[in-house]
Amino acid sequence: MNITDRVLRVYQLDRQLAGLQSRLRAAERFYAEQSRQVKALETKRVAVAHQAKQIAASVTNQENDIKSTEARLKHLREQMANAHTTKEYQGFLTEVKMLDIDKDKVEEEALNQLARADELKAQVAELDTQFAERAKMCKVAEAECATRKTEIASKLSELQAQRQAAASEVPGDLLARYERLFELHEEDAMAPIEITDLKRHEYNCGACMMSLPMEASISLLGGKLTICSNCQCILYITEEATEALTHSSKK
Q1: Domain shared by 154 and 191, yes or no
Q2: Of 189, 227, 194, 232, whose CA–CA distance to 14 is shortest?
Q3: End-to-end CA, the chain
Q4: Reported pTM
Q5: pLDDT means over runs of 10, the chain (251 residues)
Q6: Last residue of a domain, one of 104, 133, 167
């Protein structure tokens, strides 16, 4: 196994590790988002329910005020019936009219408040439904996240052991260079050489698609470490490209 193949083995294992970790992060993000929505719905439901409770208390107070006013009106009408003078009668009548006006206002406001309370109760019921549905989704997401962790844990451990073994076969300076590239570019840390025109010896870098000199293919066939002069990724050659180049050189 030449030096490029050794680095390529580390790269392939890193890609698998990144894929597994990406799947786990996706499950964790989904669970976190469901949890956030559950909390948001609960917060909103509590706020709406509190508002509905306040309105209900206000309506109760208004109903008590109406009852108190009605009792006062009844008493005034009894006094009017027993008034001894026109002035006394007019005084009672004026107070009755004012109380009637106030009672009408309170009754109107109470009706409006009752309508608002009904709206809020409907909102609470809808939020209860949404909360229940989202809570179920959250439990599914939590279970999926736990399952994903369990499934991936053993595979991650296996791949990490393989990666450690493969990395030990790569010189330290080259491994450090590759790891910097992978940290910056991940899948573009390494790229295959692509043959665009075999007869004309035209080749491209599989990462940046810039043209490569013929010497790059010769170097790769010879098992030498080859770097793309444009994007600085480490180049490798596939079996198909090796076969095509080898076949071409024999003609």
Answers
A1: no
A2: 189
A3: 27
A4: 0.62
A5: 93 93 89 94 93 91 91 91 90 91 90 90 93 93 88 87 95 94 91 91 93 91 91 93 78 53
A6: 167
